[in-house]
Write a structure and sequence with these properties.
The structure is a single chain. The chain is of the alpha+beta class and 409 residues long. It has one domain: Cytochrome p450 (Orthogonal Bundle). It is built from 17 helices and twelve strands. The strands form four sheets. Strands 1-2-10-7-3 form a five-stranded mixed β-sheet, with helices on both faces. A three-stranded antiparallel β-sheet has the order 4-12-11. Strands 5-6 form a two-stranded antiparallel sheet. Helix 5 crosses helix 11, helix 10 crosses helix 11 and helix 15 packs across helix 17. It is globular and about 60 Å long. The chain starts with 6 loop residues before the first helix and ends with a strand.
Length: 409
């Protein structure tokens, strides 16, 4: 049977409301109690709030990040993006995150040849040194904005170092990334789209030049590795390399930046847990996982329905879009004991903040290294770290985080 459209869901789930963005978790709880799937008219999406369903659908090949490997826009009942947005879509649509097999399989296999666990582990000492330096500078100034002083520069520098982007060229990386990621919000405005298009053009042009330089003079960096990667005669095209680099930068730091400040904001609101962490630094690995679960930076992940699916008796037809609510799934009481309680020692923690299935985050090991390094540096160098002012929150919902986090030592 088809699900009735319930107007109540449009008021319960309100991703453009500052109050909802500040604390969506009570609404998630009500959504889970009301059912396994809900139609949300403002975006014409089907909201999926429960962990078991989100986890299963991330692995279900009847859904996809794109439909273009099987259907044209017309066949799928969707309008093609405006021609003015083409630079963004060329960049976005050639990255692993928005591809399906066989292209996804081929590109991920080739990228994995350069982005190896050994490559990531080799970066660990650099990450720890940089985290320590950033925290020492923050302490020397008596505090400041944890976001702009530590959370942001650490992952941006790490992924730039990994890609081989010279230090003098790194200034535009974060603004380009922020502008491109604006397109991942629900119903982005024309202004947001315009900034994303401009950033896509500028970032692509920069990387095209850098790739040309590395072809002439290869180095010990990821871009050189992507150029060299091959498998049975297959290689990455230039556009695939550009899209891969942008994806690694955007995904490789947007989540880490927001996870860092979301995590510390949660710790400041749970002084007992923060005291336990300060007393026992061996809790850092489980603390990282719990903070990722408790307030995940990626709240929603979209998938196209390629073949009809059924959830709890509700038929969701081909051509529909589902919105998998990661933030809700990570608070599901069917999976997590006392899900609204922050427990840094939580042992069983199957959160899905890094996604699942074939699109599981390739950079998850690096993100964990970065989050642990900054946390250890702050615990060691700033043991009395405390909140200096109530933080302001960015209006974004899908990639959710703070605008600043002012602290003092």
């Amino acid at each position: 049977m088809d699900a009735p459209l319930e107007p109540a869901e449009s008021t319960l789930f309100d991703p453009w409301s500052p109050g909802f963005v500040a604390d969506p978790y009570p609404a998630y709880s009500e959504l889970r109690e009301r059912g396994r799937v809900h139609h949300f008219a403002p975006t014409d999406q089907w909201l999926v709030p429960r962990h078991a369903d989100v986890s299963a659908l991330l692995r279900d090949r009847r859904l996809g990040r794109t439909h273009l490997h099987r259907f044209s826009y017309e066949e799928f009942g969707r309008e093609a993006p405006p021609e003015a947005h083409e630079p963004f879509h060329v960049l976005n649509d050639h990255g692993m995150l928005d591809l399906e097999p066989p292209d996804h399989t081929r590109i991920r296999r080739l990228v994995s040849k350069a982005f190896t666990p050994r490559t990531v582990e080799r970066l660990a000492p650099y990450v720890e040194r940089l985290a320590d330096r950033l925290v020492r500078e923050l302490v020397a100034d008596g505090g400041g904005d944890l976001l702009s002083r530590v959370a942001e520069p650490l992952p941006v520098a790490v992924i730039a170092e990994m890609l081989g982007i010279p230090e003098g060229d790194r200034g535009p990386l974060r603004p380009w990334s922020a502008d491109i990621c604006g397109m991942y919000e629900l119903n982005p405005s024309d202004e947001v789209a315009g900034r994303a298009v401009q950033a896509s053009l500028e970032f692509s042009a920069y990387l095209r030049g850098l790739i040309a330089d590395r072809r002439k003079e290869p180095g010990d960096d990821l871009i050189s590795g992507l150029i060299a990667a091959h498998d049975e005669g297959e290689r990455l095209t230039e556009q695939e390399m550009i899209s891969t680099c942008v994806l690694l930068l955007n995904a490789g730091h947007e989540a880490t930046v927001n996870a860092t400040v979301n995590g510390w904001w949660a710790l400041f609101r749970h002084p007992g847990q923060l005291a336990a962490l300060r007393a026992d630094h061996t809790l850092v690995p489980t603390a990282v996982e719990e903070l990722m679960r408790y307030d995940t930076p990626l709240q929603l992940f979209e998938r196209w329905v390629l073949d009809d699916i059924e959830i709890d008796g509700v038929t969701i037809p081909r051509g529909s879009e589902v919105a998998l609510l990661f933030g809700s799934a990570n608070r599901d009481p069917e999976v997590f004991a006392e899900p609204d309680t922050l427990d840094l020692a939580r042992a069983e923690n199957p959160h899905i903040s890094f996604s699942a299935g074939i699109h599981y985050c390739i950079g998850a090991p690096l993100a964990r290294i970065e989050l642990a390094a900054s946390m250890r540096a702050l615990l060691t160098r700033a043991p009395g770290l405390q909140l200096a002012a109530e933080p302001g929150r960015k209006p974004n919902f899908v990639i959710r985080g703070l605008g600043e986090l002012l602290v003092e030592v």
